[in-house]
Design goal:
7 strands, single chain, alpha/beta, 19% strand, seven-stranded mixed sheet, disordered C terminus, 261 residues
Length: 261
């Protein structure tokens, strides 16, 4: 994987990533609709914004549970509560069913030595276990060869502002597919508008969403789509393109006809 920091354009891209990416990444992580039984893998974890987003989701869950407990206590004291505990429980269960849970395991992969230090510091010093009880692994390696992962072992793989640097893309997609479980999803978050045109800079190799989708489909991913996600109306730099695809089920079922609960 090529490093984005070796050129002036690369340094500009790094500035954009650090300045405008955090709200975009937080929105992207919430769109993943992770389940509490998932193994989540982020490739190119960078400054750890996705991990911070997961911690935020965990805090939201804890607040919701505390509010539900308070509502239960208030319902016991009130003679005719305006809202029943059962209604609140149903709402909480529906929220869980539609995702936005923290996964049972988080794996972060990062090849940059600078980002590696940032991630290790974040995990070891800034996120105590009582803030985020899920086990976190940090692997200092290229995601083209994730030998520490078994076949069919990951539910969701996510990479934000990463796919441009994966060369050759086919080899990375092949390895990603290997470790994904059947039915598992791959999601790239991309900001193509801030990138140089194809061929203008050797660092930014994959800058065409259609070509990226074609590589994924050729590798066997199904339901591959790209769509623009609006995050900030006031600042278009926060908006991004989501490219998403699924590893086909072993029995070949059409994933479009199968409910992903």
């Amino acid at each position: 994987m090529k490093s984005p920091t070796n050129t002036l354009r690369g340094q500009l891209a790094m500035y954009i990533m650090k300045t405008f990416n955090p709200p975009s990444i937080h929105a992207a992580v919430k769109r993943l609709e992770l389940k509490s039984t998932d193994t989540f893998l982020e490739i190119g974890a960078g400054h750890g914004e996705s991990l911070k987003a997961l911690v935020e989701i965990y805090h939201e869950q804890q607040t919701q549970q505390q509010n539900l407990a308070d509502m239960s206590n208030n319902a016991k004291k009130a003679s005719s509560p305006s809202r029943s505990l059962d209604d609140a429980s149903i709402e909480a269960n529906n929220s869980d069913a539609h995702g936005n849970n923290i996964p049972q395991k988080v794996i972060l992969v990062e090849i940059s030595s600078e980002f590696q230090r940032t991630l290790h510091h974040l995990v070891q010093n800034e996120i105590p276990k009582n803030m985020f009880p899920t086990p976190i692994e940090v692997h200092d390696t290229d995601c083209k060869s994730m030998t520490f992962l078994e076949d069919n072992s990951v539910d969701t793989i996510f990479g934000f502002n990463l796919v441009y640097f994966l060369h050759p893309l086919e080899e990375y997609i092949s390895e990603i597919k290997r470790v994904l479980k059947p039915g598992g999803k791959l999601v790239f978050g991309c900001k193509f508008g801030s990138l140089p045109k194809k061929g203008a800079c050797e660092v930014f190799v994959n800058v065409d969403r259609r070509e990226i989708c074609m590589v994924m489909e050729k590798a066997g991913f199904v339901d591959v789509v790209s769509e623009k996600v609006m995050v900030g109306d006031d600042n278009p730099m926060m908006n991004y393109v989501e490219i998403r695809g699924y590893k086909e089920e072993e029995d070949g079922l059409d994933l479009q006809l199968k409910s992903r609960i």
